[in-house]
Amino acid sequence: MSFPAEEWPIFPEVDNTRRDAYARSAHHGSLVKLYEYRWQGVRSNIVSSGEGLLRRVDLGLPELALPIRLYECRAGYKGHSGSFDTNVLGLATRLDKDKAKRLEPGFPIGTVIDLDGRPVRVRVFALSGNAKDYRTSSHGLVFYVNGQTHAHKSIDFFRRRAVGMSQIAESLVVLVDCTEIQGRMREDLFMNSRDRLRDDELAVRLERELERILSSEQALKALRNRRREEEIAERLDDSKPLANALGDLVRQSPLLKKLLGSGIAVPSPFPTSGTGRGGASDFEGKPFPTYFRFKGKADDEELHRPAHLGSRVRVAFETDAADDYFHRDLDPGAAEVLVDTGEGRVPLTGWSFTGPRSGVANLQFDLPAGSRVDDTIPFEVRITDPSRIDAFGNSGELTIRKEAKPSSGGSGERDRNRNAGKGSGGALTGLSLPEIIPVHEDNWEKHDFDELSGLKVVHQGHHRVRNGQVRLLCQRRQQVLEGCAEGIAFRPQSPAGEIHLRTRPARSWCTCRRED
Q1: Cα separation values, 280 from 97, 104, 263, 358, 479, Å
Q2: Residue range 275-287, pLDDT digits in tens
Q3: Nearest CA to 351 among 120, 136, 191?
Q4: How many Å apart are CA 508 and CA 122, to the nearest integer?
Q5: What is the pLDDT of residues 339-363, one digit of tens each?
């Protein structure tokens, strides 16, 4: 359909008194109108936060190529004049914009992953509270290409044993930029529906690398421990009456006092050296660095070090580059790792570059296939960016050693040659009695509980639940909380190191392991 006209009203005008979708005329432009579409979501003002259209567009377009403005033109919604139109920023831009007031200090942190020769840029955002204002629980990890979401993973990814970040899962957002993956690789990685990863070897390798990066990131570990310390500190007062009663019982019974030794204090699983938050750093990075070299080495000085079969090689660098050097949108840095195979240097794939953070970056990569004990492998790491003609070159040599065996711990025998000294032993930090933490109905959603839930185990490490890190969460309503707490029984620990829990009325036993 066409008709002649000098202008046509194709732009809206909205405020607290007027809602007109076709008010402002234009001499040129385009108008696209959708009919009979089905909206799955809340029926609210589309520019408000929460489950509305604004957040859905932010999630669908984490990095916008063109500006988008939303107008609420439907009648029935009230508010001031600015409540009916707003700009779409995209999830990445919105998080960066709110960084000072909503993110934990030191975040976001960035990593570059080499996936079969293509760089994948990762940004990890940790909010000071819940991240529900920015994403849904199904969008814990967002994979995007050219600013458009192509797949996502729920926050359950952070709760995997291989990641071990259950304590802060509700606060994390991870953006994975796959723009530089091209052609067949992109088809192998994403479904055509652009809503999930394929069940493919390439996607599995990317997931495993993301698990490794998140589980080994020191900033995330420090935040996880601090959050758990804060949670325990809030509940210490609740356990004091019981602890005092048992303390009186121990003091009145010489036999109990002898059996329990120093008392009923439980050693704290947390370090006492600090909270991990720290103060502001004086480091000010440059957009384009003037040096990028091995840590502790001079420019052009080679690095010689051993490398063990079966272990990833870790190499630290120092630089004056800004923290967002590798993962920023405009003019990011690029890295390349080359190894000498005897027939010249060839690019190595499968590496990852974490940082830089306050002038320190860390490279990790696997040894080339076929490496043998006593081999020497020359390698080179090149760093460049659009401001440079010549890349920073860092050359080194790895000497291959046999596979390192994990430490089995001490023999348990006393060292007769140690210095006995006269100093007093270090203070034993202690916690109150092991906790049973009730979760009231208003907190069910936070812990993924419903009316049938009774117990939740929060994994804090990679493989096994560590000592002091099992939480018992009872979701029953206030009037039955005491009955639920009494309905949890403990079977004595077996020699194999198992802890058995039983809940009533089901009277079923579940087993978990502890690591001292």
Answers
A1: 19, 12, 40, 10, 47
A2: 444 444 578 889 9
A3: 120
A4: 43
A5: 987 777 888 888 999 989 889 999 9
